[in-house]
Specification:
CATH architecture of the largest domain: Alpha-Beta Barrel
Strand content: 15-25%
Number of strands: 15
Helix content: 40-55%
CATH class of the largest domain: Alpha Beta
Number of helices: 13
Number of domains: 2
Shape: elongated
Radius of gyration: 23 Å
Order of helices and strands: EEEHEHHEHEHEHHEHEHEHEHEHEEEH
CATH superfamily of the largest domain: Dihydropteroate synthase-like
Strand order of the largest sheet: 8-7-6-5-4-3-10-9
């Protein structure tokens, strides 16, 4: 597979993570509990980091949320981004409490004077500011001028970029998210043609686990294959940890990062083991190897099973209530169906 040629963007530092330039594409998610609820937040941060989340965003809706930032930084180990709406003073409070990055929405952040105060506070530590445009909260004057489309999305972003540039501030990242895929794709393509700032990708309000994952895979996958995007979030009405898992699979599928891949067949009338249940159990059991460059095949019958299992690093080729365990192309053993999962895990642990 030919490597994807990524669009060259400016480079910036978000906490301990490099964004843009030739840095790897980073995975972001967002907390869905009240930021000042430290017990709930700390547990969610631990789960996200363990799943491979590299940037964590959270809402700052009041001063209690801003004051929680030092405690969150002590446990996170990854950059934290404060999501600010309506009140630039909360952004300044987040900066004062050590936030790594900010996300503001030009549709509701307020006057230029407030933005100037925000930039003055961010300048000393070069805190990146993400200009986050959403299709549902575009400035009224742009909607009146362009209608609800990509021109309004891009102009909303670039007009705010212009303010920051006029203030001599260039630590900028941009997103133009929409739930409508054609609008999202057109907006990001146009934005990528008109500036070289790092872009954060996302399909906003994508939906529940299944529909949202499909929608995100289409939208993000198209843009990433075209070399567009420096960070991304999969937005699901679900546990944020699942957002990280889906994002990682999108990047692995495109060859933009390495990691665990499960190859499993859809089953047919020839299948004589519970292949669907087995594949689900294999996927869940092997999450300890999520960051390993491994391909695991779980196949149901003799048509493609042995061939696919030999091509994978490790695999199962099912038979009649039994199956073969493969490692690095070689048959290791034949075991009954009820021992396939435990035998596969045992063989992987022996070899990895």
């Amino acid at each position: 597979m030919n490597p994807i040629a990524r669009r060259q963007t400016r480079s910036l530092q978000l906490g301990n993570l490099r964004i843009g330039g030739d840095a790897p594409i980073s995975i972001q998610s967002m907390l869905n509990v009240k930021t000042s609820d430290l017990q709930a937040v700390q547990e969610q941060i631990r789960r996200l980091v363990s799943a491979g989340c590299e940037i964590i965003r959270f809402s700052v809706m009041d001063l209690d949320d801003a004051r929680a930032i030092p405690a969150l930084k002590r446990i996170a180990g990854v950059p934290l981004v404060a999501d600010i709406h309506f009140d630039h003073k909360l952004a300044i409070a987040a900066i004062e409490h050590g936030i790594d990055g900010l996300r503001i929405n030009p549709g509701n952040i307020g006057s230029r004077k407030g933005v100037e105060s925000l930039v003055d506070a961010a300048r000393e530590c070069k805190i990146p500011i993400r200009i986050g445009v959403n299709s549902g909260s575009l400035p009224k004057e742009l909607l009146a001028k362009y209608g609800h489309g990509a021109k309004a999305m891009v102009e909303a972003a670039l007009s705010h970029v212009q303010i920051l540039e006029e203030l001599g501030y260039y630590e900028i990242k941009i997103s133009v998210k929409a739930s409508n895929l054609p609008l999202m794709l057109t907006s990001y393509r146009e934005l990528s043609r008109r500036c070289d700032y790092p872009l954060h990708l996302g399909v906003t309000e994508a939906g529940t686990l299944l529909s949202g994952s499909i929608k995100s895979a289409i939208g993000l996958g198209i843009l990433l294959e075209q070399g567009i995007g420096d960070t991304l979030r999969v937005s699901l009405s679900d546990d944020p940890v699942r957002e990280v898992y889906v994002a990682r699979q999108i990047l692995i599928g495109l060859g933009l990062r390495t990691g665990l891949q499960i190859v499993s067949c859809p089953t047919c009338g020839r299948t004589r083991i519970d292949l669907i249940g087995l594949a689900q159990k294999v996927e869940a059991a092997l999450q300890e190897f999520a960051d390993k460059e491994l391909t695991i095949a779980v196949m149901g019958c003799a048509v493609n099973g042995p061939g696919e299992a030999r091509e994978a690093d490790f695999g199962i080729a099912g038979g009649n209530k039994e199956g073969l365990i493969f490692a690095r192309g070689e048959i290791i053993k034949k075991v009954p169906e009820e021992l396939l999962l435990s035998s596969l895990i045992e063989v992987i642990r022996e070899h990895v």
